[in-house]
């Protein structure tokens, strides 16, 4: 009987530990699309509201106030959080994220790029090498799930 109770406790702990973690508005991962599908939906439009799933490549090391997501084409997409209303853990790189929000292509200024590089913990040399603005995918998320 003790063995059965012990196994049940271990199972319950393992199940609880495998729960996805939510940030911002509570969302689910149902009907999340890939980065490629999101980019196809964005073609010819100023912005698109979507729920997308992709891998986290980097995160703000100051306080978790932005993420970089693998855009699937050798580029990344910057993810900001609606109204600066929530943050994600600074150690979430490598996890899969589901995000609901608005995607658009924006030009990021040199000053902003340098600021993001500082927040990411880049070296002074890497920061000084940033000399041109960059057009990139930007996503403003109202809800995020980090999958364990």
Set out the fold topology.
Elements: H1 2-17, E1 21-24, H2 35-42, E2 47-59, E3 66-70, E4 76-81, E5 96-108, H3 110-119, H4 124-128, E6 134-147
Question: Keyphrases for this structure?
Answer:
alpha+beta; OB fold (Dihydrolipoamide Acetyltransferase, E2P); 4 helices; about 150 residues
Description:
Strands 2-3-4-6-5 form a five-stranded mixed β-barrel. 26% of the residues lie in helices and 37% in strands. The chain has helices at 2-17, 35-42, 110-119, 124-128, and strands spanning 21-24, 47-59, 66-70, 76-81, 96-108, 134-147. The chain has four helices and six strands; from the N terminus they run H-E-H-E-E-E-E-H-H-E. By secondary structure, it is α+β, with helices and mostly antiparallel strands. The protein has a single domain, classed as OB fold (Dihydrolipoamide Acetyltransferase, E2P) (Beta Barrel).
Give me a quick take on this structure:
By secondary structure, this protein is an alpha+beta fold. It has helices spanning 2-17, 35-42, 110-119, 124-128, and strands spanning 21-24, 47-59, 66-70, 76-81, 96-108, 134-147.
State mean pLDDT (0 to 100 scale): 88
Kindly estimate the percentage of residues that lie in beta strands according to DSSP: 35-45%
The tally of helices reads: 4
N-end to C-end Cα span: 31 Å
Considering DSSP H and I runs of 4 or more, what fraction of the residues is helical?
25-40%
Low-confidence stretches: 1-17
Largest sheet: 5 strands, mixed, barrel
Provide the structure class.
Answer: alpha+beta
Computed Rg: 18 Å
Series of H and E elements: HEHEEEEHHE
């Amino acid at each position: 009987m003790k063995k059965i109770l012990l196994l049940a406790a271990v199972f319950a702990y393992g199940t609880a530990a495998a729960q996805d973690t939510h940030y911002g508005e509570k969302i689910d991962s149902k009907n999340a699309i890939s980065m490629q599908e999101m980019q196809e939906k964005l073609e010819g439009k100023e912005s698109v509201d979507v729920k997308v799933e992709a891998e986290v490549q980097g995160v703000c090391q100051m306080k978790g106030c932005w993420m970089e997501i693998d855009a699937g084409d050798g580029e990344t997409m910057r993810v900001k959080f609606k109204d600066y209303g929530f943050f994600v853990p600074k150690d979430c790189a490598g996890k899969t994220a589901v995000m609901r929000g608005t995607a658009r292509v924006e030009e990021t200024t040199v000053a902003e790029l340098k600021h993001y590089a500082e927040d990411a913990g880049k070296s002074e040399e890497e920061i000084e090498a940033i000399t041109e603005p960059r057009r990139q995918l930007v996503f403003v998320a109202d809800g995020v799930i980090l999958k364990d």
